[in-house]
Amino acid sequence: MSWKPALPRERWHEIENLYKSGLSMQSVANRLRISLNAVTYVLRKRTVPRRSFVEANRLVFEAKPMSFSVKRAMIEKDRVLHLAGALLYWAEGYKTDKATGLDFANSDPDMALLFMRFLRCRYSLDSKRLYCQVYYYADQDIAAITSFWSKKLKLPPTSFRYPYKKVNFKPGGKKLPYGVVHIRYTDKKLLRDVMNLIQFYRDKYCVGG
Fold this sequence. Notes:
The chain folds into two domains: about 10-65; about 70-205, no CATH class. The chain is built from eight helices and six strands. It has helices at about 10-20, 25-30, 35-45, 55-65, 75-90, 110-120, 140-155, 190-205; strands spanning about 70, 100-105, 125, 130-135, 165, 180-185. Helix 2 packs across helix 3 and helix 5 (about 75-90) packs across helix 6 (about 110-120).
């Protein structure tokens, strides 16, 4: 099929409908095999509002495929883990709008392990997006601490990146024996799913209370 400089007026509605469906102007042009200038002209003539930069970015984000899938809760134990994981992230997770993905931080080994079990129970994850960062004190052995968390969370040593060394601390003061581990997953859609799960339990148990 050859490219056309424009569409006849009776087909202008196709340009408008495709743009309103979420396609970019360039994608509309490619789909109809017409020039970008033709798309811009028709949208202006039909007084179709142009998307803001924020809205355009949102549509691009929504169009991206998810890097994970949600598993069905097959047994009661699964549902209990879903509740536990949601409450842990509600209490200890990074939840601001600036977050680019999941970030759960804690110094308690069993709490971190429980959160990892929640992730493995609820999701099929892309292992390349899952990693841990350890915060530790300058007088601690980062190799030993990393080895500890690797065994505790059943994650390979290669999953531990960008260790952060705290140098400004009181010598002889009380320190966390294993530092703090951040469990991170770089997909904001996973964070959104966890936040939706938190909201589900908030509505179920807290509304009217």
